[in-house]
């Protein structure tokens, strides 16, 4: 919750689906795409889009886009238009720029000499400005400021198009990957194939699932998604992650790993550690481990690093709950609920000014007084960004009778901007960069404040990867990077690649 | 959650506000009414309405109504129209009839010989049919099927209107209360006064709060609300409940208990026990006790009545969570989360057919596999109505690796219809009345199923009232009924009054 | 057009339809009602409503209401709900009060001891205030300020309702007609019958048509409408007018004149003369004559009364065109078009302030320069109300090269308010009551201005009634008033009845 | 009207405005653009768009787009966003393809190495397919199927962009004009300049107007519009037409003719003759003559070519009215109105199937019986395309008492498709190409049918150009083509250029 109100947000979610077997199929691809996007809705609520293809030669593409949540953007009657799709990709968008327009809604579809391609993108190209200039120098006009249009035009531009040849989209994708190192998880649909692509640093997540016929267990199709949490809601089983740098071709014949574009010698992978801390849904699986479990480990680690003399442990509902339960387990303090949430208030980060945001806290939470009045409370939060939303919560608890409120944050202080797809306030707005940070407890009105260390966070994340190693199902054709690494740039300022601006 | 999907629903929420001190006041009455209704949104999502009065002679009333959630029904520009109100009442409606029309939206405003009155009502008159006939026999045409219009016409009809007299609305309200015993919590606004009324059985809740100026603690105004949970979000403090049968006058001069209409000799009060079990927000206070605490006690009682040999205790999020934590505390079993919820799916009970409802479960919950795979789970639910929503959840947990799933329900089986404001499925639809109920565990796919006993529920509810007796703040002018009693008709078939149809 | 921009407007249009033969019928009553209302759309654009009945015992009524034009208010999917109606009434509303709300939308449906009635009303009761008081003194609360609700409550009130009797709605309607002399054209639907009622003065129009099967000429049903112009669009033939004071019963068995309530001795009828001058559609028939023809006669009469030395005659399109053609025929001057209209601007009287209205003229009309540059133009208008819209048109013509612009108005100056259903500006706003009227030509920038005389208008209207006498088809059972009379109150201040306020 | 219902439609309207004098100016450019588009609304109702520029370095562009009529597409609050524009272009779109999407809405804005350009286009490129291939061969992906996007990318592509040079947009526009001969009237906005471009054949219209300060007559700005009819509504005066092949630069310093790209030796101009016959508003001026006057001449010519022994002449309102008045003048027969129109029905060509279209006629027109019952009617129409809409009108007149109905069409039969921006039904759908055409009178139920000859139409159009020669105001710097020529391809099959597909 804290994050939401601090203006930190994920850029996007992508989702694709290909029906297996003979086409036309009875599998309702458009319906599956819609449900898949609903499951990824936490990654973006600004707009949603779907493009389906019937897969024939030439293919017929059908596009559906709209502003707002998936449930608002697509009307039932609209979905009927898409019903003959045999494959398709979808996208749910979080606006980083503030310009909220239908024309920025993905997937982008462009017509090229080699036919139409549709592209859905999660991430942010670190060298976008240079690439825009390059494309425009070639004489191309760009109609939006989005990286996604840039990517489609880059795919169309190089290598030069030859009318006679069979289109080699894989070569174009590989070329794109040499032009920009990160960050992108990409779905490219061409006629009857979806290419699922993850940048060499693996900065954004991308997982593959298999649609399973309930009775016999036959494969009905394949799905690919920013997060595996979407698989259950459509009757799919987790298959594996797309690896950093990998291009996976998904067709009615199955999935095929075509290539793994390497990182520069010596560079470790750089999967965004904040996917674990905040963005991802707790039931998603990354690197073989459930996000919920990682968050619980962060809570345990925090209890070790920052023990508290108190009566009860609680959570800012509900993203911090696994960490709070972990803290309670490790510390032996009883876990109680101190706040209940009004479901009808909505994500308050939509609201335009700080005054309304503070009112938002009052509208949003009710104090469960009996559980903490007269007690010393350890309140676990998953992060503190600007420091302006935890403050009214502490006030609320104190007014309702808490004798002490100790804030324990299950991640380290955020100090640096992200250039790889996360919307973080400017350096000046981050509480950790302000003079007030020296007395952060006084500033936010807490009895004490302690953060998880960077080392603690990394240990909580990476400890699990090794122990869960056996569970990973990786196709034999794919060479996985054995090295473990995560992007902690917003905490440490150490970016995985040099930034070109 | 289970309830939501079973079509059980509260009828309505009412909220009123009067600014204290000299008028016109700077207090934003319309804004407070809006926030108050947002806090009562769980009691009704079909439509919302607000009427404000400037309190002058004659008064100017301004009305704002709309379909859907408060956030949809009122637009910011509309609220500006209401800005000069010095007092006002609001209503949020849950449709029991399926006819969802703006004309049923409350508050009702009617013009009478004694000026305009506005009425907001929560409840359902047990003798509505007879009263309708009476009113119509008098020659009045009724334009809706709602009890609320009926109430307003009854208020206008008797005693006969005399043009010359000062209007005696209190006499009219008392007369109304002799005509219909229950169920109603009512706000009647006339010019510069709000009358807050609760039926003699106290079937529906109604609480009074005081708006407090932060620095000096001065009284800025008074609010009255179906539930006290709304007070915090507008900066008000809980003052007391309106007592069964009581008429409280609220004006800029303060609150005044005008009368307490008695029940028939020997009849106990009959506050709806399901407000504790399911409807109310957990941070609301009824009869001196916090709803959350009562639910937690139900869980403890359930653990005593129905112990289980299992590994973990969990909840169907999130209304059953306090009972689950109570069960865990009493039983000593560890509490874990087994399901995470997709916030973007919405209340699935809106959806029209059973197939979509089942899909709704899949869209709605993700399994937190690590927490229960290979384990025996006690899953606490707050109630089972039709039995068609818990079933897919059990299936989901088993497919994800739970070895046993024991369902423990923190309330007794529902067997009878409610005629006092709660929308319950027909007798035939209730799972407890079906032949399948004999093997309910087999029917829903659970390892075992146990319910809380009626006696256990009543003990959990009433045990707390005595222990919390001291906390109640009751104005000295109000005689409170010392007897304790609750309506358990939907569980036992014993209705508090004879039903007239 | 001039009128529209001056804020003069009709109150409403009413339309009813009963399918003949056995029920359920295949006749699409709801579709016919909709088309009928579209044909009456010029009488009101604020809201529209339809109520259908299946005519069974007890009847099922279905209601559809919405804001705006019929095409906006009713969606195709909504109309499907009404498809089983065997009879129904509809209403299209013009707001006179400025309070534009769905709850004022007609028809009103109320439940009474004798079942549900639905009422649609065109007109305005001259003694509404006294009647409201009377109803309220009886103890009835009124939820709107509309006369239509008042009428429904009056119908329910007297004579007193007896539960045992067969309802005698005709007695109730007759009683209503003794309580209020004018103005109303009324449709009252009860179960399987529509009563079509016109006030004793016949102030508002009401005509009956017969739905005809194309091939054999059989009667498929009956319709009743404010204007006969609606008959053609639904395949109905003009039958006759409802006479002043007449109550006509329309059922599947046909039409039946039940009663003619007389006027006070010596009072002539008072059909609104402005229906001829401005409001009605030119193809409607009143008193046996086509409105277009009356307007053309007004133009001829105007040419006799106010001849002009000029080169061409033209019109302010398009309501004044018949008068302009009449003027051209009588005067021998050539008729040309001087203005073309932008169809996409809409009725500009919706616009809120005078500045936008003047801009509206510029947006609305284009000058057809070739037709009048260097010429002396006689410009016919049908009326001048405030004088603020003809002025920019004259300016436009002069700037485009007209050497002289002579305004000839095909009706007399409006000087008095209407209390019988027409929305006219206040006395002070009427140009004819302002000092500027002495030099009206100078004020509006015309070379000269002349109006039709009251006598001339009456002669143009009544001359035709005698000559067309033979055409009227009046049922033998109906005694028609042989005396001719029209309401000219807005021109002369002579109201047909004493005004009670 | 007939045309509308036949699915013939104009492609688009373009409008531009530059404020003169020092910037920022007080001239409300966005408001003027909106009003200008409203005046061009008859050229397209699908969507509307505006882009304004503040003209600074670098410029800030603001875009506003929406579906539907201008009044629907732009909300007042949206227009405020554009208020600081010093220049801007707008577009109103008619969909030829049936794909009605916001992304096809113009103007297109693209970012290039030389800054952003905005393009609005009326017309259709005859060699669009070849040009698309050329652009895509260069590696550009096209995101829409519209010519307008193609034009913007062509402008960006050649000549090659050099980062260092001052952008030479005029060279790019000239290059574009060598690549595609017709048809296009184009507005290209770059920073502080609008280039107004007309193709060498002058197929689509484009006129320039001067915004005049009322009192002193100073120049406040310049506007450019598809039709001059828009000038009056914004206080502008007609200046001149952009000549075929001409590029006019419009800036705050005034207008400047930069170049006239010639046609191939021997080719005459080819202004679309149907702009005169049907599309344009009657008060627009093309080639020095008012459209209304040309239509009147067509009526006179028709009376000479096809005289009729009849009693009255009338029109299918209202596009055929000038021709009907011309026919009446030439023939000496009296002109009367036979049909009145229901303003509230809307353009029925939106309706999807033929049955509803026929109902549309009934809903749309009322018969003015008195004017023609028992008479022989000459009914003038401006064109007959499919023949399915005139037929019910004839039936209506006959049923209402016309003894004969002679159809006289003020243009020749349409036999060929248009590839230059007009949406005409397929060859097979055109009534003139069907076997029924041999007995067209019998087919549509008329007493007789006669068309204007191609020679007669051309004479009516071109006769006026010579006679009106003196009136043209052409800047001395512009060399006008002295040769007269019009595109009559849809009538004769002779296209002005070879069609490349």
TrEMBL record, chains A, B, C, D:
Record EC number: 2.4.2.14
The kind of enzyme this is, by top-level EC class, is: transferase
The prosthetic group or cofactor this protein requires is: [4Fe-4S] cluster; Mg(2+)
- UniProt-listed SUPFAM superfamilies: N-terminal nucleophile aminohydrolases (Ntn hydrolases), PRTase-like
Annotated GO biological processes are: purine nucleobase biosynthetic process; purine nucleotide biosynthetic process
Iron keyword on record: yes
- Per the record, the domain of life is Eukaryota
Domain Glutamine amidotransferase type-2 intervals? 12-253
- Pfam families documented for this protein: GATase_6 (PF13522), Pribosyltran (PF00156)
Please give the function described in this protein's UniProt entry. Answer: Catalyzes the formation of phosphoribosylamine from phosphoribosylpyrophosphate (PRPP) and glutamine.
According to UniProt, the name of this protein is Amidophosphoribosyltransferase
The source organism is Pygocentrus nattereri (Red-bellied piranha)
Gene designation per UniProt: PPAT
